[in-house]
Structures are given as structure tokens and as C-alpha cells.
């Protein structure tokens, strides 16, 4: 490896961090694909695994172009990941079991809970990747490295699309957990009441108002006509008296 300038050393440092994350996620995605039972999610995870492998190759190529060597660091394998997850969730499962009785001793309390937790972790991983490439793009821009900035921007956009997909799944899966674990009678807040219907008396009163108005107008018209007739009769009578 040729001697590196300070400029390239900084770029390679951050690119290697992103490269290590991509290689780590190759393993994580494979495990998530194997665990999920949702075919829509499984299909998208498979697509993103291909994207992730392509990202790793592109970043590795860019590191070499800058004169560096791609180093993924200590990327844990499937067994190591499984042991880490098992150690953490074992405590949670024991606490849940003590509170609720026998449950499915897996990562969560049931199939829906497991699915939700896996997708929540995937969402978090995408957030970390987005942060990596946002930093790389900003540094490359400031150092006038257009190629690195372009690459970071392209990868970041793909990570953002994946995170957006996962965000929509979180909402759906949260509903699935509620349906699986919370009885229907407990899904509404205590003390909530259905909206009351308006009183039929109010409707009747409101409906009768126009009719009453019409009657009032009719009476008023009759009164006016009677008054007019009275005035006319009185005028004729005065006219006859004067003539005589």
C-alpha cells in the first residue's frame, strides 16, 4: 500500500467503517430472512441482501482506488450473533414467563412479537448505515472528492428506501402483536364510551320549526289582508256619507 495523504486517510477511515457495517449486515440479513414468516418482508429482505453485497463491493472498490485496503474488522458470524441474542433475550423471556406463565421461549413472547423485534432491529441498522453514508458524503464534498460523494449518496438513498419500507412494516406488525397478545375487550382505553346518538326529540323539534314558521307567515298574511279589507270598507262608507 502506497503512502497515503491525510486527505485520503480520512476518507478511507470512514469508508472502512461503512464497509464493515455492510459485511456485518450480510450475515444479519441472512439470519432475518431465515426467521421471518412474512413473505412480503422475506422478499424485500432478499432484495436488500443483494443490495448490501453490492454496496460492500462498491465501497471496497472505492477504498482501493484511494490507495487503501478494505478491512471489515471483526465481523461476527451467525453463531456468534445467535449467542449474543440468546444471552440478552434469555433474561427477558424469564421475566415474561414469571409474569405471564408459560410462553414461547424465543426472542419475544410470540410469532408476531418476534417478527416485530426483528424488523425493529433492521430499521435501526438502516439508520446506522444512513448515518455512515451521510458522514462520508459530507466529508467527500468538503474534500472535493466527487466520486466518493456520488457513491455515498447513491447508497444512502437505497438505505433510506429500505428503512422507509421497514417503517411501514413496524406499524403493521405492531397491530399484529396487539391482536395476538391483547384480548379484544382490553384493546380500548378503560372508561371509553361509544359516541351518543342525538336525541330524537331534538330532531323532531328542529324538524317542526320550519312548519311553525310557515304557519306564522300564513297567519300574518291573513291578518294583513283583513286589515286591508277593513280599511277599504271604511273608505267606501266615508265616501257614501259625503255624497249624501
* Uncertain regions spanning at least 5 consecutive residues: 77-106
Return the string of H and E elements: HHHHHH
CATH H-level homologous superfamily name: Ferritin, core subunit, four-helix bundle
Strand content: under 5%
Instruction: Just name the CATH architecture.
Output: Up-down Bundle
How many helices? The count is: 6
Can you describe what's shown?
There is one protein chain. Helix 1 packs antiparallel against helix 2 and helix 2 (39-65) runs antiparallel to helix 5 (146-181). The model is unreliable at 77-106 (pLDDT under 50). By secondary structure, this protein is mainly alpha-helical. It has helices spanning 6-35, 39-65, 78-100, 111-142, 146-181, 200-243. 79% of the residues lie in helices and 0% in strands. The chain contains six helices and no strands. It has one domain (6-184): Ferritin (Up-down Bundle).
Write a concise keyword list for the protein shown above:
single chain, 244 residues, mainly alpha, Ferritin, 6 helices, elongated
Topology:
Elements: H1 6-35, H2 39-65, H3 78-100, H4 111-142, H5 146-181, H6 200-243
Helix pairs in contact: 1-2, 1-4, 2-5, 4-5
